[in-house]
């Protein structure tokens, strides 16, 4: 600790009268032949200018790095070193145990992003610096002695072979972790050059992985098609794609439920619109209709049931939530589903799915975020600000949106700004 404020990485010092001993071979082969011990009796002099001039020392190259593809094979409790590009970051927040955490998305040049979590003082020392640097560049970090996090049971989570699941386990700092930002290693320069050459691709991913409240969306760098049979292997919170046929799960199911207009809390046993006092948001609000129903997805590996809600559910049925409520709850009639059936029958769709977080480790509910006819145009796409089903939101439920909406998300690199617009398009059948 005596030298903690003196030594700086990659600066030159003249050290005299340090203790030098041969390394101890009793417990195996040591890393070095000699061990230096620097204590209060050691003279340490910073060298700013070498006189007479000498050839500079060669840049450091001695790194023992673990490739991103090998994280899942690291044994429990082991610490390893990682060289990575920092792509995105979230503001610090609090974990369930009350400790501060901050999540980052890091990646190598093999396009395998992984979550990296910093805790407590590491946020103050390194996290805030990285968050500031991300406003103008993609920094390179050398994180030494990091590890895979342990689950609440104390065991390191088992990793699936699909790399996208690393988002949910990822990496975390340990007490002995050190993080060097933009280190002067040749390996770091190679990674920095790759990042500069692919900057537009990295910017696009940064925008895709940023939520509407600056939260991180842990999505694959490149779209990964998951067979339905492997959906169980996806962890809660995972976003992924499947190619499948789509059908209404049951034509006699409820296509509309009533929800609080303010917090979106569902009241599935209510059937009439009215004013009421919501005990969830603790104020007088309205029960309003919300379009929600189940769909069956089928591919060659199997089938599963998913939920589709709100505007993109309305687009599928060619009806607004209010129209569905009037037909089903007021007139007690049956919905006209011919156009929806025609829209879905005999087609293969590319479907974006999110597996929701659940309590008590139950099977996660699947929600459709978007689906596209592979042979045609967009059928429905979720707005960038949509909230998950069953995950309360303070946004009010508004009437169905127009055919085209703009949901800008701005990120800045250098002096430029980049805007992302999400559109919802649907082409009704000709006889509609």
TrEMBL record:
- List the keywords (alphabetical): DNA-binding
Quote the protein name from its UniProt record: Replication protein A 70 kDa DNA-binding subunit A isoform X3
Source organism of this protein record: Nicotiana tabacum (Common tobacco)
């Amino acid at each position: 600790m005596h030298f903690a404020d003196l030594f700086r990485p990659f600066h030159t010092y003249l050290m005299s009268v340090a203790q030098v001993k041969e390394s101890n071979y009793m417990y195996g082969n040591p890393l070095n032949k000699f061990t230096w011990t620097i204590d209060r009796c050691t003279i340490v002099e910073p060298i700013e200018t070498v006189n007479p001039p000498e050839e500079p020392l060669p840049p450091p190259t001695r790194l023992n790095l673990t490739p991103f593809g090998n994280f899942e094979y690291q044994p429990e409790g082991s610490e390893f070193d990682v060289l990575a590009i920092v792509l995105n970051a979230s503001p610090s927040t609090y974990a369930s145990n009350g400790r501060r955490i901050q999540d980052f998305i890091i990646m190598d040049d093999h396009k395998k992003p992984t979550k990296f979590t910093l805790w407590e003082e590491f946020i103050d020392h390194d996290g805030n610096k990285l968050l500031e640097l991300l406003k103008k560049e993609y920094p390179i970090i050398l994180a030494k002695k990091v590890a895979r996090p342990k689950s609440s049971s104390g065991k390191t989570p088992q990793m699936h072979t699909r790399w996208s699941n690393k988002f949910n386990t990822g990496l975390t700092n340990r007490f002995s972790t050190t993080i060097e930002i933009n280190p002067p290693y040749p390996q770091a320069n190679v990674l920095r050059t790759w990042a500069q050459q692919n900057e537009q691709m990295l910017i696009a991913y940064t925008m895709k992985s940023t939520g509407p409240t600056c939260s991180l969306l842990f999505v694959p760098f490149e779209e990964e098609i998951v067979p339905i049979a492997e959906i169980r292997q996806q962890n809660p919170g995972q976003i992924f794609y499947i190619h499948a046929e789509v059908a209404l799960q049951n034509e006699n199911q409820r296509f509309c439920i009533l929800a609080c207009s303010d917090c979106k809390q569902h009241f599935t046993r209510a059937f009439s619109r009215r004013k009421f006092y919501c005990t969830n948001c603790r104020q007088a609000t309205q029960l309003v209709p919300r379009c929600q129903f189940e769909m069956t997805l089928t591919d060659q590996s199997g089938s599963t049931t998913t939920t589709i809600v709100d505007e993109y559910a309305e687009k599928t049925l060619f009806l607004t939530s209010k129209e569905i409520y009037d037909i089903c709850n007021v007139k007690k009639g049956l919905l006209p589903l011919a156009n929806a059936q025609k829209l879905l029958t005999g087609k293969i769709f590319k479907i974006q799915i999110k597996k929701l977080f659940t309590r008590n480790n139950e099977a996660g509910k699947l929600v459709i975020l978007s689906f596209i006819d592979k042979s045609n145009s967009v059928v429905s796409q979720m707005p960038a600000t949509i909230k998950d089903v069953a995950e309360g939101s303070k946004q009010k439920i508004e009437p169905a949106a127009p055919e085209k909406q703009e949901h800008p998300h701005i990120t800045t690199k250098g002096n430029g700004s980049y805007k992302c617009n999400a559109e919802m398009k649907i082409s009704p059948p000709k006889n509609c």
